[in-house]
Amino acid sequence: MYDYNARWYDPYLNRFLSPDSIVPDPYNPIDWDRYNYVRNNPVKYIDEDGHFPVLPILAIIGGFILFSQVPSDQYQSDPSNHGDPVVMALGLMLMTAPAFGPGLCLNDGNCMNEIQAVSNIGQGLSQDGDPLNEAQAVSQVVNKGLNLLRTNAGQGYNSFTAFKNAQGSAGSGMAWHHIVEQNPANISRFGTQAVNNTSNLIRLPSGARLLHQQISGYYSSIQPLVTGSDILTVRQWLQTKSFEFQWKFGIELIEKFGGTKYILDQFGDKAK
Amino acid sequence: MTEKKIRNLIEIFSRAAKNHYEASLVGDWRTANKEAAIIRKTAKKLRSLGDEAREALLALSESEELSISAMAAVYSLLYSPERSISVLARIAKEPGLIGFEAEQALQRWREGTWKLED
Fold first, then answer.
1. CA-based nearest distance A257→chain B, Å
2. Does A123 lie in the same domain as A82?
3. What ipTM does the predicted assembly reach?
4. By residue range, what is the domain housing residue A80?
5. Which of A170, A198, B18, B19 is surrounded by the most beta carbons within 10 Å?
6. What is the pLDDT of residues A223-265, one digit of tens each?
7. Residue of chain A whose alpha carbon sits nearest to that of B96
8. Which SUPFAM superfamilies does the UniProt entry name for this protein (chain B) (predicted)?
């Protein structure tokens, strides 16, 4: 554990243990993930105070500037562009491509242990005649899933295509369903690795009026009871919420649409 | 005259609430949003007709059809929070989507993020 003044950093998780109390650059989408370390690019940046990613060369220059009594905000670097959303999107793509590897846990046995722990719940349910009822079982699976999210232990990919290439197709009559939707707002706020992550994708039946389409349709609809608004769609309302809020909402919705089996299957022993 | 108008509006509201829920269940968002617009406009007209119309909407929250009851309750929350919350709390215990939606409505109300009737 390392003390970075503003907060503690866990080298095992490759994450800070608490969110940044500030967003270093509100124009930079990756800075809205307030747990990331140096914009997920430790090769390029260093962090001296727990708040700001700084290019090492600029840190040195900054040191000189500091000695010269120049106001401190001048030694913060910002590798991205400002203002133009197209340029911002390009900046994000260029920035994240080298920083994100093919998966956060590819070489991490402990991550797989977490996933296996989730699998064991599903296995116990289906094969051991476990006395846990279905609701309790789902609750446990959901809690395990939340732990995966909170510890960033799922396996992430740089795109949905990369995810499918690695994890395979969802199977006949099924589709991979993002629990937290893959939309521009979520990609911008949380990054592709969080959205295209093994803890965020679940196989659901796909076809006209089947679960995948039912839930996607629900997100496109106006639901006054759910949102407290009769103007916003569920999707528009959700896009300002945290990743965890959206994930819990998405899982519960699958359950309420009768998809409990698929939640358990996804995290159970039968998971491919 | 006003009484008949209120009765008509309550009928329109009831039909739209039921259609909205049924469309939502099958993911038919186009129909759901069309019905949501009817619900919004009808509720606004009812509000403009004063307490008698508001009372009629509140009475609708006692409907046996839960989709109608829940929608009438959320559009009566600002007018009569106690009775509306009581209706929503009862529906929230129901299994399935309607129970989930009623629970969500109570959560939004508690959070203070309620936007209906603004």
1. 7
2. no
3. 0.96
4. 2-99
5. A198
6. 999 999 999 999 999 999 999 999 999 999 999 999 999 998 8
7. A256
8. ARM repeat
